[in-house]
Amino acid sequence: MISSLDPDYIRNGREESVWKEWKDVVLLSFSTEKGFDYLEQFVMSNILIELLGEEHVYLSTTANGTLYYLIGAGVVRIKEAAERMMREFKRMTPDAVFCAMSRKDDVEKNLQSL
Questions:
Q1: E strands of the chain, at which residues?
Q2: What is the pLDDT of residues 46-97, one digit of tens each?
Q3: DSSP state of 56
Q4: Who's near 19: CB < 8 A, 6+ residues apart?
Q5: pTM
Q6: What are phi and psi of 40, to 5 degrees?
Q7: What is d(CA 113, CA 87) in angstroms, rounded to the nearest whole number?
Q8: What is the C-alpha to C-alpha distance for residues 36 and 64, in angstroms, rounded to an integer?
Q9: Is-contact 22 70, C-beta < 8 A?
């Protein structure tokens, strides 16, 4: 389930070019044992967008309480942004937050196999 997609792709009729532009992407995910509630999802997404810029966060979704983000691989601050998000989450709750990030080539290979 896709929860957000850059509206410019839809408005400009560029849906067919989306996959070409997403060729170099990184998949970033965050999870907790209990999952994220709606407010936590909102806060985490806003932090990431503020740190990286909304033009670099192509897609976000939630599945089974885990947050997933598709980010342009050219962004050099992804790891730093993830660490900052984890620190900020710890300020909201004592729950442990887990983070995983793909390598650019792994996402590209998986997209080609679709």
A1: 4-5, 25-32, 57-63, 66-72, 97-101
A2: 999 999 998 899 889 999 889 999 998 777 788 899 999 999 888 888 888 9
A3: T
A4: 111
A5: 0.71
A6: -65, -40
A7: 35
A8: 9
A9: yes
